[in-house]
Amino acid sequence: MTPSARVQAAIEILDDILAGAPAEKALTGWARRSRFAGSKDRAAIRDHVFDALRCKRSFAALGGAETGRGLMLGSFRAEGRDPGSVFTGERHAPDPVREGETGHAPRSEPERLDIPDWLWPSFSSSLGSESEPVAKALQCRAPIHLRVNLRKATVPDAIAALARDGIEVARHLACDTALEVTSGARGISQNSAYLDGMVELQDAASQAVVAALNLAPGMRVLDYCAGGGGKTLALAANEGVEVFSHDAAPGRMQDLPVRANRAGVKVTTIETTGIARLAPFDLVLVDAPCSGSGSWRRSPAGKWALTAERLQELTHIQGDILAQAASVVSASGVLAYATCSVLDEENGLVVETFLQDHPDWVEIHRQSWLVSQGTDGFFTSHLTRNRAR
Ligand SMILES: C[S@@+](CC[C@H](N)C(=O)[O-])C[C@H]1O[C@@H](n2cnc3c(N)ncnc32)[C@H](O)[C@@H]1O
């Protein structure tokens, strides 16, 4: 496909997404209908679509309309490129730029930084002087990070194995096990280091949340909101730690046995009704459902789908889960709360509400990771009972 045809395809897919289709579904639907497109075409079109979704407000302003065409026009103008070279009207190319499709420069801070107006006060008060750098980082593509599974390889061995298959990486400062892919990223899931369980795809801050837990052999640990099991596997990579995984939607953990097997670790999956029988646990990790605002680079549609009502609902859910999970922590154990959100409402404020409602608990550790520092945005807080100190 020509560069122009790829842009035209992105315009059509963006129109589907703007009409309500989930991004992945719109992309796969287009690929199914367009068998002529090769893997490089599909990858380039995907990049166009996700770049436009990350910058939907500012591109719509620059392109003059919140349509697929407006967003793609805006993307050219944002880069200082003349859209005329691609919007030619030739075969498979978008129509030439029409009079009136002039657009305008973003007129406000949140429009320039691609944050919804309603969220800007909360976003900027949560992040203070980091608001602009974080919002700008959320406009860009996310790096690809790997976690070295220390059960299967040392970090230098994993780096060498990846290099043999043409994947170059650099160590990431956020965590000892974290690597950032610097070239060859597209081959990762077919790579032998990945297939042999030496490395897992996982954001460096997500790894650092687990590394910040003082895990020691003999501990019994419950991952209360395990989801697909990314943190479960990072927990289980610690020798001698017994790991249980739970999720209110057990179907989300369906791939976990296969992933654990590949990683060479043991994980026991439990239903909600089984938790009380196995309690108490030395450590309960609550990686709570949240806005995902720290990972909007990866899932940009979430930035535009979030509403004030949903945010408030999430804070209630987070508080409820934290209270449930606290009841299965041993007397001297730790309750670790985590979100991939950058918003105070979902982070410090949830912890403070919990501590007000549970005066026998205290916070012993709090840490945040900023999107502007090269990871997803993450927050964690470690809580324990007063008498345990
Ligand atoms: C942020 S995701 C977890 C991501 C996962 N820990 C990982 O590292 O890949 C939050 C998870 O919480 C689960 N969840 C929602 N409500 C819950 C509840 N009341 N109890 C336990 N899990 C819940 C969701 O099904 C979702 O899988």
TrEMBL record:
Record-linked CDD domains? AdoMet_MTases
Q: Where is the composition biased (Basic and acidic residues)?
A: 89-111
Example of a GO biological process term: methylation
Please list the residues that bind S-adenosyl-L-methionine: D247, D287
Q: Name one Pfam family in it.
A: Methyltr_RsmB-F
Q: Which residues form the SAM-dependent MTase RsmB/NOP-type domain?
A: 134-389
Catalytic residues per the record? C340 (nucleophile)
State the name under which the record lists this protein.
RsmB/NOP family class I SAM-dependent RNA methyltransferase
Q: Which organism is it from?
A: Ruegeria sediminis
Query: What lineage is this protein's organism placed in?
Result: Bacteria, Pseudomonadati, Pseudomonadota, Alphaproteobacteria, Rhodobacterales
